[in-house]
Amino acid sequence: MQRRDVLKLAALSAGELALRRSAAALSLSAPSPASSTVPIIDAHIHLFDPLRPGGVPWPEKSDAVLYKPALPARYGSESAAQGIVGAIAIEASPLASDNQWLLNVAANHPVIVGVVGDLIPGTPSYLGDLERLHGDSLFLGFRYGNLWNRDLAEDLEKPGFVDGLKALAAAGLVFESANPDPRLIGAILEVAERVTDLRIVIDHLPHATVPTEQAAREEYWANLRVLAGSPRVFVKLSEIPLRVNGKLVTDQHAYKAQLDAIWDVFGEDHILFGSDWPNSDHVATYAQTLGIVRGYMAGKSAGAREKYFWKNSIAAYKWRARRTDQPTL
């Protein structure tokens, strides 16, 4: 078990842990894809091709699960049967040229409704790159946080960084976080306060390590509540599935307390679905990932399910439909 999984388990109640221990004997009770009439936009997938000339920065060659092409045709073959009608591709590379690579791949596959790239505000090429990429309607914004050896809290103080975020907001594009922890949540709050018209998406919040020390834990949730008070801040329920002793936890109740805590803070208007495909293959199949999510959402109203599975992604990203089966507001 990974250290982050251990810490996540420690944050749960004893009752939840007991449910997880018996999870292997239980099965998913989520509605089948055929019974669901809500179209789904997957707001978090990754595309890459290790076979291309020069290879890729990620995943590593040693990763037997991920080190193979993850391209729209494969994604479509795994997701279409689950009711997915579109997806947003999130960068998986710090290479400046891969912004265009990702856009080029998406252009030929209308299942991809948008792309979130990788830019570094304050660098000499930033404003020019932002303007060029913004010329493509598929470019929705960029991601910055705990990856590629970056530190948002520290980088906010670098010359031109905040001005770069203001330019992003002026363009009507999204700032997305990466792999949240308490320090990153604090930095995102500072971004929200310093660039008040910027739309922000916080990814993988269920997978964030919540502090166990009381004061730090209270500060973490206090920061999230302040962020939730902004109409421009959204969060993804992504990276949800968990393995215990090598087995996927399938009992819906084992996830409920953790997901309820996020839902109760942000509310049904600011939460959206992301699978984290194919990175999620380390833990669960696409069908299993969606089954866990569907099971949790089965307890919500029909209106809340629509918001979660597609409406909130439009509010957050402003993506445009490319196929007739992709919903519009």
Q: Mind explaining what this structure looks like?
A:
By secondary structure, this protein is of the alpha/beta class. It has one domain (about 5-315): Metal-dependent hydrolases (TIM Barrel, Alpha-Beta Barrel). About 40% of the residues lie in helices and about 15% in strands. The chain is built from 12 helices and 10 strands. It has helices at about 5-10, 15-20, 70-80, 95-105, 125-135, 150-155, 160-170, 180-195, 215-230, 255-265, 285-295, 300-315, and strands spanning about 40-45, 85-90, 110-115, 140-145, 175, 200, 235, 245, 245-250, 270-275. The strands form 2 sheets. It has an 8-stranded parallel beta sheet. A two-stranded antiparallel sheet has the order 8-9. Helix 8 links the parallel strand 5 (about 175) and strand 6 (about 200). Helix 2 (about 15-20) crosses helix 10 and helix 8 packs parallel to helix 9. The longest helix has 16 residues, at about 300-315. The protein is globular.
